[in-house]
């Protein structure tokens, strides 16, 4: 009997194949149902359970980490598309009910590529309406100071790989409440867009192109656009910075170097391009180019010397500017309508300002520049050159024409009792500074034109001139040396006033600080300086002796001083009534003035436009000791103008008369010798004036003794003294000499007549006869002739003769 053999694979029947297929389908159906169940469960968990769980975890973890309450209204999760949205997120303040950070929503879309990359790959991030509120308290700390300190102390970790695309921030807002400064700042309408940023190796060469736009304090807008490769081996970035009408007020509060400087107004516009490059393992390079425009600028400086600066427009041109200062800086500046004002002084207007070719090399500590500006509409200032620091040095070529100086006088503060009401300066030459100690050298020509100086105390013009030209200037400061070729003063005027207190206005021109003794204007004989000299003696001891050091010459030389069209007005308010005198038509020359070599003096003019004046001689004001040899002559001065003095000192006004003087003054080796020849013609006294300072003596007798038959009085008054004597005063000496003369006239009139008319020291008050004789002696006859001559020459004198006999003879 035959038996069936086992079936082989090639012998499957259709029934067997169907059975096998049904078994396989049943098996995968169970897997499919299981996967579907897991998929549905995953969705249920992601949609319904995970948002609540995540919400609680986020609030708890962040509240603990940030030490502040954190709340989230809800979280939406789409587990199938890997999308997550946080709604109404809020971080509260550490104290109080305020919010540190809040936003309407945060949308994040995680790409499935994260699985393959094993790192976060985010397809999109959208943050809507974020609001940040920061505060700075009165103690200087920020409301997030604790977070900054905590995160700063976190250990560094290896950077994680990531990829983020389509980053969008919509309608952001930042508030800053500065309680310390009492100000509030805000940035609103913040919009940020970053198309792509990643640090994967394959993405390192891809350019990131961010975009930022915001509004500052509800006014100006700021726009940042550019591209960057922050993770490539060669990091690169280019950013365009555009500001439109950024209000700068309040910025000065946060700049410590600007303490005392207040920014009243100012707006800035920018068109800048910032480039950054850093090759691998090399230093970074930064370049900033473009324009910064300042508009409607108003700056107040409230420091020691207050000033105000206002400007319509100031443009700074940056040419490859390096903020890190690793290479030379090339910038330029243009200004329009810049008003500089100091205190109550008139303002200075700088227009068409151009600062070009500015190259600053911080490595070499040097700077080069060229400046061109119009000053107050008509003045011009041009300068070019180089400067250096560490050590300090400068070398500039200066061309200044008619630069108004009125606005600059305020920089001297309140040191002067005078105001410059008009005046301009010109200079053409070089200014150089170098060395240690610093030597400043000035070479060139200068002019001070249309000058007018007002005496603030007396409210009158003090000085004025049409032009003061100084040519051939050669001045150095270390050592001090002044060499000037020519000084020319034309059409000048000076007012000299003696105050009711007996002080000259020129002496009070420089205001003295309280407790500081005034400095004498003239000091022709400087006090000798003691110098210690040492010498060795046997036994090793040293003795020192102090010897006076010889006075030194002043290192000043002036080729010649030229005067033309000058006048001097003298007003003595010390005398009542006041006395006035005018010197006019002054012209002449002085020089050369060279230390140790007396220079010629030739000055001519007139007194009250009628009496000619002449001053001739030699002078050396800069030598080791003052040298003067001058003769001054004036003829035909009207005497009635001197009535204020005659009324004060002799008790009478002057009705008429003329005065001529011929004086010769010499100063040598500190000794003054003066010869004063005074000629009075037809002096006639007027009304009597009561004065407590008038001398108590018969003035009529004195004049009768002095006046000859032609109505003339010829006086010779010698004066001498030592200028080194602090008690010596030329004016007081002359007054003393005149008083002594009057005393001699009244107390010894006959002795005076004898000295005048050839009687020598003889006493003409008596005529002696020999006992028992009627004839006079020859000596008595000589005295009698002198008396007769005196009576003839002095017709106003009356002589009374009384005989006296000596009973003993």
Description:
The protein is of the alpha+beta class and 809 residues long. Helices cover 15% and strands 51% of the residues. It contains eight helices and 32 strands. It has helices spanning 14-66, 113-117, 145-152, 643-649, 699-706, 730-747, 749-756, 778-793, and strands spanning 70-78, 83-92, 99-110, 121-128, 131-136, 163-178, 183-198, 211-216, 220-229, 235-247, 261-278, 285-301, 307-321, 329-341, 348-361, 366-375, 379-388, 393-404, 418-434, 439-455, 460-477, 480-498, 529-536, 542-549, 556-572, 579-591, 599-607, 611-620, 627-638, 652-668, 671-688, 712-722. The strands form two sheets. The chain has a 30-stranded mixed β-sheet that branches. Strands 23-24 form a two-stranded antiparallel ribbon. α7 crosses α8 (778-793). The protein is rod-shaped, with a radius of gyration of 51 Å. The termini are far apart. Residues 1-10 and 519-547 have low confidence and may be disordered.
Gist of the model:
With 809 residues, the chain is an alpha+beta fold. It has eight helices and 32 strands.
- Rg, nearest Å: 51 Å
The overall pLDDT, averaged over residues, is 81
* Helix count from the secondary structure assignment: 8
Terminal-residue CA separation:
226 Å
Major sheet: 30 strands, mixed
Structural class: alpha+beta
- Ranges with pLDDT <50 over ≥5 residues? 1-10, 519-547
What is the helical fraction, as a range of percent? 10-25%
Assembly context of the chains: single chain
Q: Give the tally of β-strands.
A: 32
**Percentage of residues in DSSP E strands:** over 45%
**What coarse outline follows from CA principal-axis ratios?**
rod-shaped
């Amino acid at each position: 009997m035959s038996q069936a053999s086992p079936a082989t694979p090639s012998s499957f029947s259709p029934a067997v194949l169907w059975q096998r297929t049904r078994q396989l389908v049943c098996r995968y159906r169970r897997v499919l149902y299981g996967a579907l169940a897991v998929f549905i469960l995953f969705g249920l968990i992601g949609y319904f359970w995970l948002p609540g769980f995540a919400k609680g975890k986020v609030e708890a973890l962040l509240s603990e980490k940030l030490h502040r309450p954190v709340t989230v209204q809800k979280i939406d999760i789409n587990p199938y598309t890997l999308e997550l949205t946080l709604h109404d997120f809020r971080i509260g303040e550490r104290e109080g009910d305020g919010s540190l950070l809040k936003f309407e929503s945060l949308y994040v879309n995680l790409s499935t590529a994260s699985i393959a990359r094993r790192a976060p790959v985010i397809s999109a991030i959208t943050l809507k309406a974020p609001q940040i509120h920061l505060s700075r308290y009165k103690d200087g700390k920020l409301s997030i100071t604790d977070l900054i300190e905590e995160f700063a102390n976190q250990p560094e970790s290896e950077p994680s790989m990531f990829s983020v695309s389509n980053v969008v921030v919509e309608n952001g807002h930042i508030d800053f409440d500065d309680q310390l400064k009492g100000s509030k700042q805000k940035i609103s309408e913040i919009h940020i867009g970053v198309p792509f940023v990643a640090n994967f190796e394959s993405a390192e060469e891809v350019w990131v192109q961010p975009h930022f736009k915001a509004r500052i304090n509800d006014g100006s807008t700021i726009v940042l656009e550019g591209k960057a490769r922050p993770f490539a081996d060669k990091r690169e970035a280019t950013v365009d910075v555009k500001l439109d009408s950024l209000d700068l007020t309040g910025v000065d509060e946060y700049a410590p170097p600007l303490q005392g400087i207040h920014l009243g107004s100012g707006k800035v516009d920018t068109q800048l391009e910032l480039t950054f490059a850093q090759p691998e393992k090399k230093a970074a390079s930064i370049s900033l180019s473009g324009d910064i425009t300042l508009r409607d600028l108003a700056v107040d400086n409230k420091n020691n010397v207050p000033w105000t600066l206002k400007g319509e427009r100031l443009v700074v041109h940056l040419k490859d500017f390096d903020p890190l200062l690793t290479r030379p800086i090339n910038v330029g500046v243009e200004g329009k309508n810049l008003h500089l004002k100091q205190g109550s002084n008139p303002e200075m207007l700088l227009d068409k300002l151009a600062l070009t070719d500015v190259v600053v090399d911080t490595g070499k500590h040097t700077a080069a520049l060229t400046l061109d500006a119009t000053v107050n509409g008509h003045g011009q200032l041009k300068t070019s050159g180089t400067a250096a620091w560490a050590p300090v040095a400068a070398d500039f070529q200066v061309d200044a024409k008619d630069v108004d100086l009125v606005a600059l006088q305020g920089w001297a503060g309140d040191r002067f009792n005078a105001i410059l009401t008009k005046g301009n300066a010109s200079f053409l030459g070089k200014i150089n500074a170098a060395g240690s100690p610093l030597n400043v050298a000035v070479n060139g020509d200068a002019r001070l034109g249309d000058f007018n100086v007002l005496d603030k105390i007396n409210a009158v013009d003090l000085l004025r001139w049409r032009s003061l030209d100084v040519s051939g200037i050669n001045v150095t400061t270390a050592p001090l040396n002044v060499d000037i070729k020519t000084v020319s003063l034309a059409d000048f005027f000076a007012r000299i006033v003696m105050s009711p207190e007996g002080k000259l206005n020129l002496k009070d021109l420089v205001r003295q600080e309280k407790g500081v003794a005034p400095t004498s204007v003239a000091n022709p004989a400087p006090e000798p300086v003691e110098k210690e000299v040492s010498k060795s003696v046997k036994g090793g001891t040293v003795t020192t002796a102090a010897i006076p050091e010889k006075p030194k010459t002043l290192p000043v030389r002036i080729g010649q001083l030229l005067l033309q069209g000058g006048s001097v007005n003298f007003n003595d308010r010390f005398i009542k009534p006041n006395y006035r005198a005018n010197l006019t038509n002054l012209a002449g020359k002085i020089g050369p003035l060279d230390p140790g070599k007396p220079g010629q003096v030739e000055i001519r003019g007139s007194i009250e436009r009628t009496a000619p004046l002449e001053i001739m001689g030699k002078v050396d004001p800069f030598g080791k000791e003052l040298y003067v040899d001058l003769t001054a002559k004036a003829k035909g001065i009207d005497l009635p103008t001197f009535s204020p003095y005659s009324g004060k000192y002799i008790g009478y006004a002057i009705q008429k008369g003329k005065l001529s003087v011929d004086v010769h003054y010499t100063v040598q080796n500190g000794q003054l010798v003066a010869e004063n020849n005074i000629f009075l013609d037809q002096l006639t006294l007027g009304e009597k004036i009561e004065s407590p300072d008038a001398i108590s003596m018969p003035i009529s007798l004195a004049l009768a003794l002095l006046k000859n038959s032609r109505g003339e009085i010829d006086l010779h008054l010698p004066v001498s003294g030592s200028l080194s004597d602090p008690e010596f005063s030329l004016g007081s000496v002359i007054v003393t000499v005149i008083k002594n003369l009057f005393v001699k006239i009244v107390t010894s009139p006959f002795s005076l007549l004898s000295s005048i008319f050839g009687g020598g020291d003889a006493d003409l008050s008596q005529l002696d006869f020999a006992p028992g004789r009627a004839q006079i002696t020859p000596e008595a006859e000589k005295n009698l002739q002198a008396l007769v001559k005196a009576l003839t020459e002095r017709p106003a004198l009356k002589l009374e003769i009384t005989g006296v006999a000596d009973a003993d003879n």
